[in-house]
Amino acid sequence: MAPRFQVKSNMKSLEQELHCSVCKDIVKQPVVLPCQHSVCLMCASEVLVANGYPPPDLPPEPNSPASTPNTRSPRQVRRPTPKSEQRPIDRVLRSGPHLPSPSMPRSPGYGTYQGRRRKEAPPLVMMFPCIPCGQDVELGEKGLTDCLRNLTLERIVERYRHTVSLGSVAVMCQFCKPPQALEATKGCADCRSNFCNECFKLYHPWGTPRAQHEHIPPTLNFRPKVLTCPEHDQEKLQFYCRSCQRLLCPLCKLRRIHTGHKVLPVAHAYQALKEKITKEMNYIQSNQDTVLSQITQLESSITQTEVNSVSAREQLAQSIRDLTAALAERHSSLTQALESTRKKRGEALSAQVLERRGLMEHAGLMAFTQELLKETDQPCFVQAARQTHYRFSKAIENLQHFTLAADPSFRHFQLDVSKELKLLTDLTFIKAPVAPVIDTQHTLAYDQLFLCWRLPQESAPAWHYSVEYRRRGVVPGGASRGGVRGGLAAARWGWQRLDEVSGTSAVIDRLEMDSVYVLRVRGCNKAGYGEYSEEVYLHTPPAPVLNFYLDSRWGLHADRLVVSKEQRCARSVPGLSLLQAADQALTSCHLTSDLLVGDVAITQGRHYWACSVEPGSYLVKVGVGLESKLQEWFHLPQDMASPRYDPDSGHDSGAEDALDSAPPFCFLTMGMGKIYLPQHNNHHHHHSSHGNGNRDHITNGNGSSSPTGVTYPLPPRLGVCLDFEKGRVTFYDAHSLRPLWEGHVDCSGPVCPAFCFIGGGALQLQELVANRNADQTPVRRVTIQARGSNLNNN
Fold first, then answer.
1. Which helix H or strand E contains 674, and what residues bound it?
2. Who's near 667: CB < 8 A, 6+ residues apart?
3. Does the pTM of the predicted model rise above 0.70?
4. Bridge-partner residues for 675, per DSSP?
């Protein structure tokens, strides 16, 4: 057995768990709120009344035997009067929370609801401000009526009081005379009273129903034997709904609201919850070293917080002193400049005053002139009067055009401190950068991942950024890799990090093909790291990326097809030949098709590339074809009125005799902001038995269909994946890597990327992320004969 002081210490430590969050004292008659926190019934009622809700009828607080209704001695009245039917707490909980009115009187108990008339206001929904939650908890229409008593907490409180008090407060018999009152030895759960031995035998005689009452140790707070349903009187709570997380009686279980819910017997829920809590408690007890180390770390953090706060306070005071010193220094320099200007202007105006005073009648210049005029020697007069004449001319000019030598006002010496005052008003501690915003228009996954972001305008500046990424185990639109175990393993993959990234973009290489990567970024400055941006998901290409240029050596029609200097962009414009042909045609337009191919020939492996078609293009075809057939098509160009070639199928007029052979070309047609996804014909479906075969385009009900295919809005970028061994070409929406259409092509010889222009249009090959900052020099024509091991295949 544990020592007495140890038991007392353990029970003492329970006290903080037994406090009511409202009164800060040990709970009395606790009720469980919907948020699972417990408060005193009296405290909950007072809080609701303080918030303007009608007060419920509360019983007297059972803190002493004198507050109970059974205080008369059995020797004064031979017939006992213990309460047997309606309990005080039940009467409180069954009292309706609504105000009495003629249309809706107060509800007498559970399970009675008279409804409301039409055009009446909806019933009042009570909101209880839960302090531990920090938010309002909805109690429902019935308020505290739906809140069950926490009998377990009451038992713990009773054991705590008994252990801590150690029998110092005696519970007296409620039926003895006051002078001869004896200490109670038993309590009756049915009578809800305390008895001494004599009174218990007197009021529970053998052979009567009272003899079957349950006797318990003496207590000052009688509780119900079992929890009963708050809506169905005297119905025991025998079930537990895992979906609603509520106890149910047999009648509540039959309600429509619990249809399809996981409802268990309360015994099963009890056993499962008890096992979980036991395991959790054992885990905590087995990790006491970890708890102690964390406590030590937290205490060290508290000490460090105090030290750092003192240091921060000193730095704040020093910063204010520096500002004050800078202001004082600036004040001194500005004052000196103002004083120097004042002195210069004063001297200039004083000189002007002396000059004007010299023009007075009896002043120096006038007196000197009068004496000068008395000179009769002409040569001497002329020699001496020239300077006087110049001074008089200058004085007359100044008299006629009088201006001040200096501006007496100091308007230009007033400081505009509005910006500085605003800066001082907004002066605050430095903040970490807010969450960056990912630029989804420029972020892409190609040969490498390119992530671009920006900081909001209200954000503090960032010194550098941290980019984090990880590979997901679940591909959007598909299942987990490796089943459930693969998904769980993917969930455990950690984040990889690129630290101290300068600028607002980053490139991530060494990626796996056909995988989804999750990326996020956050900024850092003197205040530390800020919040993470929203996570962005990028899907890497399904095959190594093929890098090629447009081949300009096939004798392009210079008047119709123009290739850029970098050989990655091509534009088709109506030329003079088209105008001449249109001038000769009366019933139809004579359109020509211009072919353009890549400077690579594929003979093995799987390869992926992407391009973008200008939405205003008339007709542009993107795909692949046999190099020999493409050259034959180029050297024998056909107009669109000729049925000899169909670029979509690659069959000439005799192709019907060879239905089992794959077509030499495979194209998708785009134009006028749309992309056309054709339906497969019979000979295409014939090849579906080989390998994976052809599959129809992926539709979602948003495209307009025709008997032979459907059209969709043109994606920003179109991806093409060629599997040479299987002779299969798959077209993707390169932005989301969503498959659009799949077809077959004859791979009996080298296959080239091909593009066909009909009318005006423009096309741009997707630039490699690795080549964005490198010199782009077109390479010679090459042949791909080996598989690439990464996403980049030059």
1. strand 674-678
2. 621, 622, 623, 625, 647, 648, 754, 756
3. no
4. 670, 712
